[in-house]
Write a structure and sequence with these properties.
Protein name: Alkaline phosphatase family protein
Mean pLDDT: 98
CATH superfamily: Alkaline Phosphatase, subunit A
Distance between the termini: 46 Å
Organism: Candidatus Alectryocaccomicrobium excrementavium
Low-confidence stretches: none
Oligomer: single chain
CATH topology: Alkaline Phosphatase, subunit A
Pfam family, one: Phosphodiest
Structural class: alpha/beta
Shape: globular
Number of domains: 1
Order of helices and strands: EHHEHHEHHHEEHEHHEEEHE
Strand order of the largest sheet: 1-3-10-7-2-6-4-5
Signal peptide: 1-29
Largest sheet: 8 strands, mixed
InterPro entries: Alkaline_phosphatase_core_sf, Phosphodiest/P_Trfase
Length: 268
């Protein structure tokens, strides 16, 4: 039996977020994910999401969810929708996040290798800013999300460690400083490259990412109380083991291409 790839594509993320917040998606973006919009309709009716956290842990594959399901308890217990998603090729971080937040394939947005140029095409963030939303990105220094979305009228917080990033994101939420907040965590990816995807160290970081999402959901219930608020757990690509017990990604194989996204709509 040939490898099976998920049918929902990462390019559908941008229009999904735009539809949830009721502003026009980037013009070329793929269609939104219908079931996510239906879930939001069930929670909020026709009203827009007012605050949204997009949490981007790096390199968390769907096969990890299948094999180490208990490690994901933090995100499962604090989300209401699970979507199998297909990434894009080459399955490396700048290419995948560019497709996630432009809504288009690599041949359209132009990042087709492990390079980090500033995107010149329309992104989710441009669309949100045009609609009057306050947007912020929180990321570690040197990573793709801290580079490819620069030169927009939005706030950037580029910090040394994932722990610093998480603290800054929490502060922004507590101050109600933005409507759309992107938080990137590299810790699983960095650890699995050095130690392998299933090493004890890597699995601890995997669980840390799920638990981080849970912590932010609890915070959101407090600081976004009374708002129509949503969150999403959105990895970029998967990973696989290579010779020497190391971890890698970038291939057109199910281990690298199949990921899983989680969405959550908070009670008001």
């Amino acid at each position: 039996m040939p490898e099976m790839y998920n049918t929902t594509c990462i390019t559908q993320t941008a229009a999904t977020v735009a539809a949830l917040m009721r502003f026009p998606a980037p013009a070329a973006a793929a269609e939104p994910i219908p079931v996510v919009l239906e879930a939001a309709q069930n929670r909020f009716g026709a009203l827009p999401v007012e605050r949204m956290l997009l949490y981007n842990p790096d390199a968390i594959a769907m096969w990890l969810f299948q094999k180490y399901t208990p490690a994901f308890s933090g995100v499962m217990l604090h989300s209401c929708l699970t979507i199998p998603v297909r990434s894009v090729m080459p399955s490396v971080t700048p290419v995948c996040f560019a497709s996630m937040y432009t809504g288009v394939m690599p041949e359209v947005h132009g990042i087709r290798a492990y390079e980090k140029p500033v995107l010149k095409c329309e992104t989710l963030f441009d669309a949100a800013i045009a609609a009057g939303h306050r947007v912020a990105i929180v990321s570690t220094e040197g990573d793709s999300i801290s580079k490819i979305f620069l030169e927009r009228e939005m706030d950037y917080y580029i910090l040394p460690t994932p722990q610093d990033c998480n603290a800054k994101a929490a502060e922004l939420m507590e101050r109600d400083a933005c409507d759309l907040l992107v938080l990137y965590n590299r810790n699983y990816d960095a650890t699995m490259h050095r130690n392998g995807p299933e090493s004890e160290q890597s699995l601890a970081e995997l669980k840390r990412n799920a638990d981080t999402f849970a912590a932010f959901e609890r915070l959101a219930r407090k600081v976004w109380s009374g708002k129509r608020a949503a969150m999403a757990f959105l990895p970029d690509h998967g990973c696989h083991e290579i010779d020497g017990g190391l971890g890698s990604h970038g291939l057109d194989v199910a281990e690298d291409m199949n990921i899983v996204h989680f969405y959550h709509f908070l009670p008001q």
